[in-house]
Amino acid sequence: xxxxxxxxxxxxxxxxxxxxxxxQYKPAExxxxxxxxxxxxxxxxxxRCIEPGVNKVDVPTVREMMAxxxxxxxxxxxxxxxxxxxxxxxxxxxxxLNCSGAPNIMSTPEIIGEIVRNVMAVGVKPEQIWLYExxxxxxxxxxxxxxxxxxxxxxxxxxARRSIAGYDPKTYVEVDFFGEDDTRSNxxxxxxxxxxxxxxxxxxxxxxxxxxxxxxKNIAYGNFxxxxxxxxxxxxxxxxxxxxxxxxxxxxxxTVLQVMDGLRGVWHGGPFLRDRxxxxxxxxxxxxxxxxxxDRQLLPVIEDERKRQGAISVWERTTxxxxxxxxxxxxxxxxIEFASKFGLGVYDANKISRKDxxx
Length: 359
Prior knowledge:
Blueprint: E1 2-4, E2 20-23, E3 40-45, E4 50-51, E5 56-57, H1 59-74, H2 79-84, E6 93-96, H3 109-121, E7 129-133, H4 136-140, E8 153-156, E9 167-174, E10 184-188, H5 189-193, E11 197-200, E12 203-207, E13 211-213, H6 215-220, E14 231-232, E15 235-236, H7 238-246, H8 251-254, E16 255-266, E17 279-280, E18 284-288, H9 291-308, H10 335-340, E19 353-358
Parallel strand pairs: 3-19, 6-7, 6-11, 7-8, 11-16, 12-16
Antiparallel strand pairs: 1-2, 2-9, 3-18, 4-5, 9-10, 12-13, 14-15, 16-17, 16-18
Helix pairs in contact: 1-3
């Protein structure tokens, strides 16, 4: 078993938490993050993809968006060939849902259904596909079973809150944030022991602690136990914790594709949607293998909508509730740039290649 402190922390201020990463897994020759297409993002926009207010999704448009995005990412003429660059028939595929705000905001079921259809088109059997998230109440509220074929697994890791039965005791990040009793966050056992490939499907959301929540936070906090302890009072350690978790093997190597669901979004109050006033409609999807580059593109989407709504910037470090759009924590949108220091992707906007497709 290897135990190491992330090298990226070496030059950071001493007040950053001290992390101990324990894993027996070695990186793949070409890890899934940043993957085959570092620094590349494809954004597909379609006005007809969803009907605002009633949130009715147009499935043929979603199918066209996904095919166009994948072809543009890989350069293939056929979408099936694009998917075959990431998935082979023998793979056991985990699809990382984002259901933290369900049933009001979550990975759109129609998008998940289309991903499953494409994975099966390259020869993967339904029994080799797993839709997964941490908590059963969130997953059950969405009814993904209505959108995918029989045989596809739909699982929640913590059938009882704080149960560690679904986590790997040998793969974890240890850190003491606030003197808490349990200082370990363990990786999901399915990730270490069963999945060969992971597809990450985050939403476009504001986040009161992380600033925004996209690819990085969904793959990091969504694959480990005991992560909410990173926030206390007004202080959050999301700046360094998100990248630290996302870089742990085998999660980093197995996560081969990022499909950001931006049909709907949340511009304030995220990751939840307790007040529908904070819902908005980017009507887009982003595709890539580089979670940093995609999240870098997410920042202006949330920031611009907050500006339109008269809310303060996600970069403003205040918890003063008299300011419109303030959060309970000091926001840390810098977690995206921090994650780039682990080699997870490209943060510099001048080095990111973006393709925009309008349908």
